[in-house]
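Morning - heme C inputs below, output right after.
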Amino acid sequence: MANRQQGNCITCHQVTVLRDAKGIDGASGKQGDFGPSLDGVGKRYSLAQLRQWVMDGRRFNPNTLMPPFGTIDGASYASPSRPILSLEEIDKVTAALATLR
Ligand code: HEC
C-alpha cells in the first residue's frame, strides 16, 4: 500500500499506521489527501466490500477517481496489458484494510 511502484495507496489516502511505521517506503508524512482517510475502513466495510474497492471502486461510485487495481475493463490510460495488482496482491491489501479499525 505504501510502495510507489505498486498500490501507492498513500499517494491519495492517509493511513496512520503506515505514516508512523519506520522503514516503509513512502511513510513519514508523505501521504496525500485526495481520497478519504483509510483509518477505520475495516469497521465501515465488509471484507467483500473492501476487496471490491480495490478491484474496481466504480461498483460503488461510477465516477470515482480511484483507479481500478484489479481490472483493465474500460481503462482510459495507455493500453495497460494487465491490472495494476495481481489477485494475490489484492487479497493482501484487502486483509490489511480489514485491520484498519
Ligand atoms: C489516485 C488516487 C487514489 C489511489 C492511488 C487510491 N485511491 Fe482509494 N480512493 C480514492 C478516492 C478519490 C476515493 C473516494 C471514493 C469515491 O471516489 O467515491 C477512494 C476510496 C477508497 C476506499 C473507500 C473509502 C471510504 O471511506 O469510503 C477504499 C477502501 C480505498 N479507496 C482503498 C484504496 C487502496 C487500498 C488503495 C491502494 C491499493 C487506494 N485506495 C488507492 C482515490 C485513490
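Note: The mean pLDDT is 89.

O.
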